[in-house]
Amino acid sequence: QSVLTQPPSASGTPGQRVTISCSGSSSNIGSNSVNWYQQFPGAAPIFLIYRFDQRPSGVPDRFSGSKSGTSASLAISGLQSEDEAIYYCAAWDDSLNRWVFGGGTELTVL
Amino acid sequence: QVQLVASGGGVVQPGRSLRLSCAASGFIFSSRPMHWVRQAPGKGLEWVAVIFMDANNKQYADSVKGRFTISRDDSKNTLWLQMNSLRPEDTAVYYCVSAAHPWGQGTLVAVSS
Questions:
Q1: Cα–Cα 20 to 30 A to A82, which of A38, B18, B35, B113?
Q2: SS3 for B9?
Q3: CB of B58 within 8 A of CB of B4?
Q4: Residue B3 and residue A90: Cα distance in Å, rounded?
Q5: Whose CA is closest to A76, among A19, A28, A3?
Q6: Is the CB of residue B12 less than 8 Å away from at least one CB of chain A?
Q7: CB B103 to CB A37 under 8 A?
Q8: Those residues with Cβ within 8 angstroms of residue A36's Cβ, 6 or more apart along the chain or in another chain
Q9: What is the rounded CA–CA span in Å between residue B67 and residue B49?
């Protein structure tokens, strides 16, 4: 059972906007920044979003992040077939004294 | 650009030891906490350990506490993970990670008799 809760799956059609949620608590998302990672099969996770809504250089602006209370969200607009991947959220947890991850959301482009 | 190159993985029998290394470049290594994160085949990401800028400040996942030791040498921009008493459930790709930077490719550890 992951400390951060993500839906196991999400889907959308090309061009659509999709949102993936990440639910935590006051000791993690509520008080620390959230990173998002994208992972394709057999590859290392890709650094997608940091500090809730910042994009590393090279990440398309179709990807955006946000936070509300103890939850964070990743939004992908203008969905493309190459966005099919697993998406993970991560945050430091002050109570557990460890970095915690969501269980991952598998995104399917229909 | 930022590079995190993990090495030292391989096939090892249960109960044996292995030492992973990570060579960092492209950022100020000494100013960042550094983590090891692993991913078992077909599973999600699991945090393993962190070492802060004060190298005496370390934290471990319960699953590896007492068996694994994380360390760093800022003069060499290098991170290590000493893994003792390895178990089959430690089989995974191990990544060295800075939370503020892209990940490297990881190194595969397979624990099997």
A1: B35
A2: coil
A3: no
A4: 21
A5: A19
A6: no
A7: yes
A8: A22, A48, A49, A50, A63, A65, A72, A74, A87, A88, A89, A90
A9: 11
